[in-house]
UniProtKB/TrEMBL annotation:
Stated name of the protein: Cytochrome c oxidase assembly protein COX20, mitochondrial
Subcellular location: Mitochondrion inner membrane
PANTHER family tied to this protein: CYTOCHROME C OXIDASE ASSEMBLY PROTEIN COX20, MITOCHONDRIAL (PTHR31586:SF1), CYTOCHROME C OXIDASE PROTEIN 20 (PTHR31586)
Record GO biological process: mitochondrial respiratory chain complex IV assembly
Segments passing through the bilayer: 30-47, 53-73
Key words of the record: Membrane, Mitochondrion, Mitochondrion inner membrane, Transmembrane, Transmembrane helix
Amino acid sequence: MEDSEEKDNSKSILFYKRNLSEVPCFRKSFMTGIMSGIGLGVGHFMATSKPQTSYHVAFGSFTLITLGVWFNCRYHWTAERIRERQFKDALRIKEVEEGSESVKLPLPERKDLKEV
């Protein structure tokens, strides 16, 4: 059992005591940025044969594309979590209104769910 824990810990990358493999959208955004940066850098070098500016194009495109994909993915991830929470709250309200005996939790006091 300790061997499997050691394998999991050896593959994890920690940044400020947080495992980066558990951060939503991290892998997708960096892989997209890396591949786009390499592609645009090589494409610019093939077109102009200037290594210095090709490096700048590659690094700039990596940075911009990584940040763009990161913020877009995190926005959609957060919106999905909000919808899930609203759905769970609406189900809890519906169970309480129908008189289910299994629900012992208090109703959430949220104005946006009063109409559901």
